[in-house]
Amino acid sequence: MKSISIKGSERESVGKVATKAVRNAGMVPCVIYGGSQPVHFQAETKAFKSLVYTPNAHTVAIDLDGKTYNAILQDIQFHPVSDAILHIDFFQLSDDKEIVMEVPVKITGTSPGVLLGGVLNLNQRRLKVKALPKNLPDFVEANISELQMGNKLYVTRLASDNYKLMHPDNTVVAQVKISRAAMKAAQEAAKAEKGAKKKK
């Protein structure tokens, strides 16, 4: 999985007054969990742009005064009115410990059902995967090449040796629904065939 870098500085004071001062200075208060103890730090708001405002999934290399922590975004709080970032929680990665993370679904292939007029519905745009940090995928590939009209692609078809998908087996990732136009065309074709048989 791709990693992005964020540069920040550790915070000594973590009370309400100190946190407010951090925000007033245009910085975002953050904390890293998962290590021996939480690490509180601050970084400029613009540093999180490529992490927060993107559909892609990333790991994060957090540089705090020369010391680097590899982590993933765990939780983020936004201001209810301005949508400004209020606080971010990160979870520190360990090379030998599996982690659960949401990654986007990438559709590949061409569905025969869509070519015949069906409509592709992407039921799951993101999926939870469990893997060692080195095996975390940038995305989960969903190949729709075998989807005929009315078919569904279940999560079990997307299995991988590198990671485990944290969803029930009956989870539908994508499906090809019969469009109104295709249904009307099928009905008209059936009527025409019935009429032709009557004439005989």
TrEMBL record:
Please give a single GO biological process term from the UniProt record. Answer: translation
Domain called Large ribosomal subunit protein bL25 L25: residue spans: 6-90
* Keyword Ribosomal protein assigned: yes
Residues making up the signal peptide according to the UniProt record: none
Segments spanning the bilayer are: none
GO cellular component labels: cytosolic large ribosomal subunit
A GO molecular-function term, please? Answer: structural constituent of ribosome
**A Pfam family matched by this chain, by name?**
Ribosomal_L25p
Q: Which Gene3D superfamilies match?
A: Ribosomal protein L25, beta domain, Ribosomal Protein L25, Chain P
Task: Give residue ranges for domain Large ribosomal subunit protein bL25 beta.
Answer: 98-179
Print the keywords alphabetically.
Ribonucleoprotein, Ribosomal protein, RNA-binding, rRNA-binding
Q: Which InterPro entries does the annotation name? A: Rbsml_bL25/Gln-tRNA_synth_N, Ribosomal_bL25/Gln-tRNA_synth, Ribosomal_bL25_b-dom, Ribosomal_bL25_C, Ribosomal_bL25_long, Ribosomal_L25_dom, Ribosomal_uL5_bac-type
Q: What does this protein do?
A: This is one of the proteins that binds to the 5S RNA in the ribosome where it forms part of the central protuberance.
Record PANTHER family = RIBOSOMAL PROTEIN L25/GLN-TRNA SYNTHETASE, ANTI-CODON-BINDING DOMAIN-CONTAINING PROTEIN, RIBOSOMAL PROTEIN L25_GLN-TRNA SYNTHETASE, ANTI-CODON-BINDING DOMAIN-CONTAINING PROTEIN
Hey, which family's this protein in?
A: Belongs to the bacterial ribosomal protein bL25 family. CTC subfamily.
Q: Can you state the subunit structure given in the record?
A: Part of the 50S ribosomal subunit; part of the 5S rRNA/L5/L18/L25 subcomplex. Contacts the 5S rRNA. Binds to the 5S rRNA independently of L5 and L18.
The protein here is known as Large ribosomal subunit protein bL25
